[in-house]
Amino acid sequence: MSNSLDEFADRLQEQIHQEIIQTYGEKVYERWRSPRFGGRMESPTGYGRVTGSCGDTMEIFLRLDGDTVSDASFTTDGCGCGAVCASVACELAIEKELKEVADMTGEAILEILGGLPEDEVHCAFLAAETIQAALSDCVNRDAKS
Ligand code: FES
Prior knowledge:
Number of strands: 3
Distance between the termini: 66 Å
CATH class: Alpha Beta
Order of helices and strands: HHEEEHHHH
Number of domains: 1
Number of helices: 6
Oligomer: single chain
Radius of gyration: 17 Å
Bound molecules: FE2/S2 (inorganic) cluster
CATH architecture: Alpha-Beta Complex
Strand order of the largest sheet: 1-2-3
């Protein structure tokens, strides 16, 4: 009895995963399965927190080594796509100079992911906006010190 229940659960899970791949593509699926850079950072050099028009809030934490981002992490109470986009934003920022991070756009995040369904495109722009907020915080703190 429990074997057939386990098999049913496995088949159902596989079906769900296949539907996610069909809808969002392999790149989003892989990042959703193995999220990177998630979690709060203690004593960041810069911190951004933005609530998007969808009502979800994203936070991005940056640590600098001189003018270069040495570490980045994120949290979000939003959708899986938002977490994937924030993860990509962190990945794109690490080991980049501040001026390079300043050029990061939602389009760049979408390009890495091979695009998103229209209803989720805004998640990439929320991630870009949040990393820009964290970057501004870095610059403002630097100006005050
Ligand atoms: Fe709000 Fe994706 S971050 S719907």
